[in-house]
């Protein structure tokens, strides 16, 4: 069984992290270790509840690595730090998982299925846990692609499909242009691709840039519509930054500029 290194950044969300750890303990795919980047104002080792869960994870024969960081370096730099400082001994895959999600018990198993079909990066769908009834998608193209972005000669982006807040009635693995929220990737992808360092601290559009760079390197992204991980915050992570809207606009403007420049050059 291939072994997974699960990477999680955590900042002042002890309760959400506890839900995630419990969800991971219930996974049908149990060959995994976990690395947590502790960016909390009060260190995770001061939370007895989290420490007991981590101890239980160790007792279940999963490796646990906690990297403390007090510099508040922002989403992208935090994820890069995890990619660079994680222990990859005996590791085949890397799972980048948000700290405010609860995976269904077969989530990791479903993502591994995607990789085994020849994809390099795999993700599922991320319905919102706090909506009364998540949107259900029933329409399909002959060759369905979700998280697809087409770019015209002006560098304008047209979006086709989305998995945020959505449950799919049809269980299928399909090609995508971008992973969303949480994902699984081959170790070689994790060692080669990095998040952009010039986005704002909120890291809006960071998954687009990671996906875009991975595709330029020839890596394929697949989505398993039956792999469900419930989001406890909004689709953009429930960011608590006071200037959130302004920073999101800045990141979006940078993405559009980047797309136009790359379209012109390619």
Question: What descriptors fit this protein?
Answer:
globular, 24% strand, nine-stranded mixed beta sheet, alpha/beta
Report on this model:
The protein has 266 residues and is an alpha/beta fold. It has one domain (4-265): Spore Coat Polysaccharide Biosynthesis Protein SpsA, Chain A (Alpha-Beta Complex). It has helices at 14-25, 48-59, 75-85, 107-116, 187-192, 206-216, 244-265, and strands at 4-10, 32-38, 64-68, 93-96, 101-103, 121-125, 135-137, 148-151, 157-160, 166-168, 173-176, 183-186, 221-231. Strand 1 (4-10), helix 1 (14-25) and strand 2 (32-38) form a beta-alpha-beta unit. The longest helix is centred in the last third of the chain and has 22 residues, at 244-265. The radius of gyration is 18 Å and the shape is globular.
Please outline what is shown here.
By secondary structure, the chain is an alpha/beta fold. It has a single domain (4-265), classed as Alpha-Beta Complex (Spore Coat Polysaccharide Biosynthesis Protein SpsA, Chain A). The protein contains 7 helices and 13 strands.
